[in-house]
């Protein structure tokens, strides 16, 4: 499986993402600059964390109009797995690929620590190697991770089982403790916690690797004969 | 040429943690009369005249980029100015 790590000016978790895929997962991966206009050769798209365009205006607001995002939308429409982490999640929200928006953390502080995440939906191509109710340890590092959506959207997210991860102890004020959601089709996941920073016990947790492994296994089952 | 002033604030229904912190600080300073503080952004744009209606253009760029309608409201003032 071949992954693209999309790099915007100001991305700073792209190298961690690349390392997770290449060295820990052992799959093919390439950096793709924000002005790229073709992602056809990639099977999975990763939007890493950071501060694209310096978070000017709003987090993700400017990145959302970069060239490559048209291709990311195309890949999402084609059913390819798209994972946005942290700033990547914010970009997915701004682009409308996922519903809702991010506010400043309710404490107004940048929070950087490992948190307990509850797996709410283990029927996605990202989480089906986990069990529902599993608690996994994944680091967060954000100042704007306070997820917001209106009540109607929240009802819809619940009805379609789109809430994938919740915080066991809400660190930032997110509506309904939401840490990660998928689109209706289930192939676009946005999450504030950083699975790419939890890919080896040496880092304190290897729980994040399970997400990437699930992506690969599901892709193989769908695309490789005798997988 | 138009001079456009755009004000973006969090929607009434969305809690503004920065505004709340500033309000609390003002109360600490004994300005108990301050009921509410909302923090927002102010932008100035110089926009050339085209055959499109200026309000239509401003609304479009506010909803597409300058404000995020999910959490923010915007208002604007448009002033026509004579080219120097």
Automatic annotation (TrEMBL), chain A:
GO terms for biological process: 'de novo' IMP biosynthetic process. Pfam families: GATase_5. GO terms for molecular function: ATP binding; glutaminase activity; phosphoribosylformylglycinamidine synthase activity. SMART domains: GATase_5. GO terms for cellular component: cytoplasm. SUPFAM superfamilies: Class I glutamine amidotransferase-like. Part of the FGAM synthase complex composed of 1 PurL, 1 PurQ and 2 PurS subunits. Part of the phosphoribosylformylglycinamidine synthase complex involved in the purines biosynthetic pathway. Catalyzes the ATP-dependent conversion of formylglycinamide ribonucleotide (FGAR) and glutamine to yield formylglycinamidine ribonucleotide (FGAM) and glutamate. The FGAM synthase complex is composed of three subunits. PurQ produces an ammonia molecule by converting glutamine to glutamate. PurL transfers the ammonia molecule to FGAR to form FGAM in an ATP-dependent manner. This is Phosphoribosylformylglycinamidine synthase subunit PurQ. It comes from Heyndrickxia camelliae. The lineage of its organism: Bacteria, Bacillati, Bacillota, Bacilli, Bacillales. The gene is purQ.
From TrEMBL, chain B:
It comes from the Bacteria. GO terms for molecular function: ATP binding; phosphoribosylformylglycinamidine synthase activity. It is found in: Cytoplasm. GO terms for biological process: 'de novo' IMP biosynthetic process. Transmembrane segments: none annotated. GO terms for cellular component: cytoplasm. Coiled coil: none annotated. The keyword Zinc does not apply. Its EC number is 6.3.5.3. It holds the Pfam family PurS. Keywords: ATP-binding, Cytoplasm, Ligase, Nucleotide-binding, Purine biosynthesis. It catalyses: N(2)-formyl-N(1)-(5-phospho-beta-D-ribosyl)glycinamide + L-glutamine + ATP + H2O = 2-formamido-N(1)-(5-O-phospho-beta-D-ribosyl)acetamidine + L-glutamate + ADP + phosphate + H(+). Pathway: Purine metabolism; IMP biosynthesis via de novo pathway; 5-amino-1-(5-phospho-D-ribosyl)imidazole from N(2)-formyl-N(1)-(5-phospho-D-ribosyl)glycinamide: step 1/2. It is an enzyme of class 6 (ligase). The keyword Signal does not apply. InterPro entries: PurS, PurS-like_sf. PANTHER family: PHOSPHORIBOSYLFORMYLGLYCINAMIDINE SYNTHASE SUBUNIT PURS. Part of the phosphoribosylformylglycinamidine synthase complex involved in the purines biosynthetic pathway. Catalyzes the ATP-dependent conversion of formylglycinamide ribonucleotide (FGAR) and glutamine to yield formylglycinamidine ribonucleotide (FGAM) and glutamate. The FGAM synthase complex is composed of three subunits. PurQ produces an ammonia molecule by converting glutamine to glutamate. PurL transfers the ammonia molecule to FGAR to form FGAM in an ATP-dependent manner. NCBIfam families: phosphoribosylformylglycinamidine synthase subunit PurS, PRK05974.1. Part of the FGAM synthase complex composed of 1 PurL, 1 PurQ and 2 PurS subunits. Belongs to the PurS family. This is Phosphoribosylformylglycinamidine synthase subunit PurS. It comes from Heyndrickxia camelliae. The lineage of its organism: Bacteria, Bacillati, Bacillota, Bacilli, Bacillales.
């Amino acid at each position: 499986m071949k992954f693209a790590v999309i790099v915007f000016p100001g991305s700073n978790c792209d190298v961690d993402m690349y390392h997770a895929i290449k060295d820990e997962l052992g799959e093919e991966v390439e950096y793709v600059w924000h002005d790229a206009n073709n992602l056809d050769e990639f099977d999975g798209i990763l939007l890493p964390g950071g501060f694209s365009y310096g978070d000017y205006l709003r987090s993700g607001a400017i990145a959302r109009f970069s060239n490559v995002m048209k291709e990311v939308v195309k890949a999402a429409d084609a059913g390819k797995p798209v994972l946005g982490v942290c700033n990547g999640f914010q970009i997915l929200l701004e682009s409308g690929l996922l519903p809702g928006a991010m506010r400043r953390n309710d404490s107004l502080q940048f929070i950087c620590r490992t948190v307990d995440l509850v797996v709410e939906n283990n029927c996605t191509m990202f989480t089906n190697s986990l069990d529902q109710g599993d608690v996994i340890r994944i680091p967060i590092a954000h100042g704007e991770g306070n997820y917001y959506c209106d009540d109607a959207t929240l009802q819809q997210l619940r009805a379609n089982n789109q809430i994938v991860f919740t915080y066991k102890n809400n660190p930032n004020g997110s509506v309904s403790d939401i840490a990660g959601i998928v689109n209706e089709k289930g192939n676009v996941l946005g999450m504030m916690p950083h699975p790419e920073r939890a890919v080896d016990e040496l880092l304190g947790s290897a729980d994040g690797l399970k997400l990437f492994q699930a992506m690969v296994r599901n892709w193989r089952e769908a695309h490789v004969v005798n997988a | 040429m138009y001079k456009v002033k755009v004000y973006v604030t969090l929607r009434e229904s969305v809690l503004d943690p920065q505004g709340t912190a500033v309000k609390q600080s003002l109360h600490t300073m004994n300005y108990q009369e301050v009921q509410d503080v909302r923090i927002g952004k102010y932008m100035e744009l110089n926009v050339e005249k085209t055959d499109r209606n200026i309000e239509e253009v401003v609304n479009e760029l506010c909803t597409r980029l300058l404000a995020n309608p999910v959490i923010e409201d915007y208002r604007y003032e448009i002033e026509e100015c004579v080219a120097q």
